[in-house]
Design a protein that fits this description.
The protein is mainly α. It is 48% helix and 0% strand. The chain has one domain. It is elongated.
């Protein structure tokens, strides 16, 4: 499944942000959350959740000082 490049995504979001309607803004805010599970489902073995269960939990080590998250 091909994914759009960052410049393409930026152009789409820029165009949608100029509309300023509640529906367009809601779409901008919910699109990543909608696409993320589908993308990771396609990743199968490369997904960070591959093989995660109660017996083998996902462990995230965040003791590295500064954690920067940007979406």
């Amino acid at each position: 499944m091909p994914l759009a490049t960052n410049p393409t995504i930026n152009r789409v979001f820029t165009a949608l942000s100029r509309v300023q309607t509640p529906k367009a803004l809601a779409t901008i805010n919910t699109s990543p959350a909608t696409a993320r599970p589908h993308m990771w489902a396609q990743a199968v073995i490369d997904s960070p959740l591959h093989g995660v269960s109660a017996a083998t939990p996902l462990v995230i080590d965040v003791d590295a000082g500064l954690v920067n998250y940007h979406w």
